[in-house]
Amino acid sequence: MSFNTYKNYFTIFFITLTIVFATKLIFYWYLKPNFTSISFNQALYAIIWGYKFDLAAAASIAFFVNLFDLNKLLYRLISASLIISVLFLQISDIFYFYESSRHIGYEITDAYQDAWSLFLTAYSQHSLLTNLTIITAIILFVFYLYLSKDFKAEKFNRYYLLNKLVVIFVSVFFIRGLTQSIPLNPWQANQIGHNVLSSLSLNATYNVIYTLTNQGKKLNKLTIPEVSKQKAQSLLENLYPTQISQDDNQNYPIIKSKPNVVFLFLESWSATYLKPYGAIHDSTPNFNKILSNAMRTDIMLAGGHRTTEGIFSTLASFQNPLGKTIAKTQLESFKYHSIINELNNIGYGSAFFQGTSKETSGTGSFVQNLGFNLSYGKRDIKNRIYNENFWGVQDTDLYNYVENKLTSTIKEPFVIGINGATTHDTIIPDEIREIKFADDQQLNKMLNAFHFADTALINFVNKTLQRFPNTVFVLLADHCGKGISGNFENYAIPFAIYSPQLIEAKFYNQISSQRDVAPTVYDLIIGNYKNSQLAFTGKSLFRNEKFFSDYYHNGVLGWIEDNKIIEINLANNNVECYIHHDHLKKEVTLCTEEYNALKDNALAFTSYSQSLIFSGKTTEFFQFQKK
């Protein structure tokens, strides 16, 4: 009996394990600003705590390579390629986490469509680490080929199948998470009990392998701590009372002229980087002026961390699958109430415009499922003033294209959605003079991209109002982006509804949700959304109601009412309590009974919402109300 099979298997196993462990250390070092709340000892503990994920990733790679050990050349090339792929994937995850504050997961299925854009973005924004990775990959590739030059191909004899059975057993042992009773799942990283530490414990390689091997399966909902059915019923009735207070319709400014509506999904505009929300640098002076003359809230929370997630929360007024999107899953085919469909039903023309490719994350087809009749992407935009950045056309060229379509193709009244590409990157055209906002080079590039997008935005808004004065602009980010630390902060976005001739400026001192946009727009333009029995889970800003917001980030469910914030670790049901003040989340020393009540509300709402979205029954949301 030959032990050559096991030697080859464990050689690949330990090389992969070393790469994964080393890159997790680099992950912590490179993203240290995201982990200022923990010490190095805590970080090291978390990295080691995630050894089951590391062993599973190494075993998966070693097992796959072992399938080709009958051919020496094929074995060496495949093993070398996969080892290098693990290195690139781990480093790519660092860049992705920098942008989105979460590991690569389901997004990997879209990566091949945007591979070149992803590479160029990484190279421009993280050039040092990218160059070091490429150099390391070349050295590692040459070293491994030298190391494996004496590899002996296996022979198909009486021991071959027995050896393979042993390899299968060992691989399954590691991939299942050793001796635990359930198969290893990435969500188990949250069992460490701290969401910051959970990010360090998980590695991208296993997260991606798990995603790809489960790609053919249906998207499943996360396990949420249960609230009794009777208690949940009572809590939901309190969150959504059927009785309307006498002053519910005060200042209820229904616009009877069927105004045009423009949804501006400002790509990756994080409130953290905007001066009206506490930032130091004034990179968006034009948006700031709009904000001061608009209907707005203290701050808004996004419903996700991808464009499709933000669009769904905004237009359908519903919670996303936690940490996921319904786009390109079995959930996309279900029926959802959408503000776009409601406007279509009263005669609006509708279209969606992207500065990126329509195929990016399936956004083009997804927005059409939510009601937009037409969809356009960067390949439709032929006339351009500026060169593309790594993701698509600059916002100026996108807005020019939109203006042309509003004249030639889309009838009034119209409702359109726009999602730009300028702030998807940090590259502004060579013709535009760079301004020094900050000493940090990467931050300064990002703020210049905001500034250039801000100029394009105000030009578009002014031109549109000149031609179509009867227009309402709904301005909000699709999601946050770029190197933000903290859970709450990763979902805090700007928001304004602006129409100088139709809407008076008004400030609402509350934290709103993207889910509040659809009912607010419906009340503003169509009428009473409650009378239409629409499953909008947000609240209209025009009503004197109980407002609440929510977010989900790396295993933590956040919930906000009356400036009180709780964060629930769904893996162990632990709760941390905060207060919101001056756009910041500040920890409180004691979780009082008021905070405990928020926990019950959060779990009841989320459990109910998630059960409906996965069963395709979101339109039945208000059936809990007593008739």
Structure notes:
By secondary structure, this protein is α/β, with parallel strands linked by helices. The chain folds into two domains: 4-213, no CATH class; 248-539, Alkaline Phosphatase, subunit A, CATH 3.40.720.10. The protein has 18 helices and 14 strands. It has helices spanning 4-30, 40-49, 51-66, 72-100, 115-125, 127-147, 160-175, 195-201, 204-213, 229-239, 285-292, 307-316, 339-345, 363-369, 395-408, 441-467, 517-525, 593-615; strands spanning 260-266, 295-301, 349-354, 374-376, 414-419, 471-477, 492-493, 495-498, 506-513, 549-553, 556-561, 564-569, 574-581, 584-587. The strands form three sheets. The protein has a six-stranded mixed β-sheet with strand order 4-3-5-1-6-8, with helices on both faces. A five-stranded antiparallel β-sheet has the order 10-11-12-13-14. α3 packs across α9. The longest helix is centred in the first third of the chain and has 29 residues, at 72-100. The relative contact order is 0.13. The model has no long low-confidence stretch (mean pLDDT 88).
Briefly, what is this?
With about 625 residues, the protein is of the alpha/beta class.
Q: Which properties best describe this structure?
A:
627 residues, alpha/beta, Alkaline Phosphatase, subunit A, five-stranded antiparallel beta sheet
